[in-house]
Task: structure prediction
Amino acid sequence: DSILSLRGLRKSFGATEIIRGVDLELPAGERRAVIGPNGAGKSTLFHLISGNLTPTAGEVLLDGRRIDGLPPQRINRRGLARSFQITNIFPRLSVFENIRLAVMRSHGLQYTFWRPVGRIRALREETDRLLERVRLQQHAQELAGELSYSGQRSLELAMTLASDPRVILLDEPMAGMSNDETAHTLALIREVTEGRALLLVEHDMDVVFALADRISVLVYGQVIATGTPAQIRADAAVREAYLGEPHDEGA
Ligand code: ADP
Ligand code: MG
Ligand code: MG
Result:
């Protein structure tokens, strides 16, 4: 059964329809990449799933229950998290404090610097576990804003994991990274998404083919093909519509 379903999803901005009838079924635990040319509507699709945009028509279901129209925080509480929105980080707080805030939020505690009585130890242990998970233990006391670029991405990943999401959305996680940073982040994403469903938009096809169980190809607001990496690579229509083009156009 699908953990995430998109049914007849449409989104218009003014007179222009950007998402033009998308159906997509994401089984629990599957890593799915969404590829397509710049402007195809990939980020818009993510906004519709995460609750940052409301569809013009169609449905988004998480575990068979509709989530379209719900605010992002409520969708997050139901188990879907979107990462790599740099603004989530408080640059003047330490790495540890940032993760602890995410942990507190996942427990329904307020953003506050008051000590949550009786829960300090549990919160610290959970925070330490997440630090380890993304290999930031050595950087725990550094200011988040002073981390390297890939360090900040690791921190965001830890903050995303705080809510223990069953579905994770990543929009161009490798954008702007060096080869070394990409390799590090790729390994990390593979590790932390194990057993979770992933929806990934990424222009780096090496990353896509390394990470995705299956790939959906979005062209001009419609899914034109879905298949394994091997199937997608061999699909003549896909090659013509997309894979023949350069993929380095960025966000
Ligand atoms: P992708 O992520 O695949 O590159 P986007 O989803 O960012 O594509 O954008 C798809 C199209 O929708 C683009 O033509 C973009 O200009 C347009 N678009 C995105 N957001 C808005 C908006 N808020 N208002 C009007 N047009 C938008
Ligand atoms: Mg985009
Ligand atoms: Mg783009």
